[in-house]
Amino acid sequence: MIQQRLVILGGGESGLGTALLGRARGYAVFVSDKGKIKEKYKNVLIHNEIEWEEEQHTASKILNADVVMKSPGIPR
After folding, report:
1. Is the model more confident about 53 or about 76?
2. Cα 17 from chain centroid?
3. Are 35 and 12 in contact (CB under 8 A)?
4. Which of 71, 5, 69, 70 lies closest to 50, judged by CA?
5. Residue 48 belongs to some domain of the structure
6. Distance between CA atoms of residues 16 and 1, nearest Å
């Protein structure tokens, strides 16, 4: 079975929670944040082997997702 790819925009508390839930549900997860991700959140992402980027949104990494979730903390 091919693993679905979940991209989360926003690496704050709610984005991190979404990433962990997605990982637990079997998704290949990628977190993208236009700003800096807090060290404590980076450590959780690394520990859970979740790919991430900060200070940018790489279109090619986002557009190949099966599901994209915008963190509620990101303004429209």
Report:
1. 53
2. 9
3. no
4. 5
5. yes
6. 25
| CB atoms inside a 10 Å sphere around CB 34 | 13
Q: Which domain holds residue 48?
A: 5-70
String of DSSP letters for the chain: -PPPEEEEE--SHHHHHHHHHHHHTT-EEEEEESSPPPHHHHHHHHHTT-EEEES---HHHHHT-SEEEE-TTS--
What confidence tens digit (pLDDT) does each residue in 14-57 have?
999 999 999 999 999 999 999 999 999 999 999 999 999 999 99
Domain presence at residue 76 = no
Q: Kindly report the pTM of this predicted structure.
A: 0.93
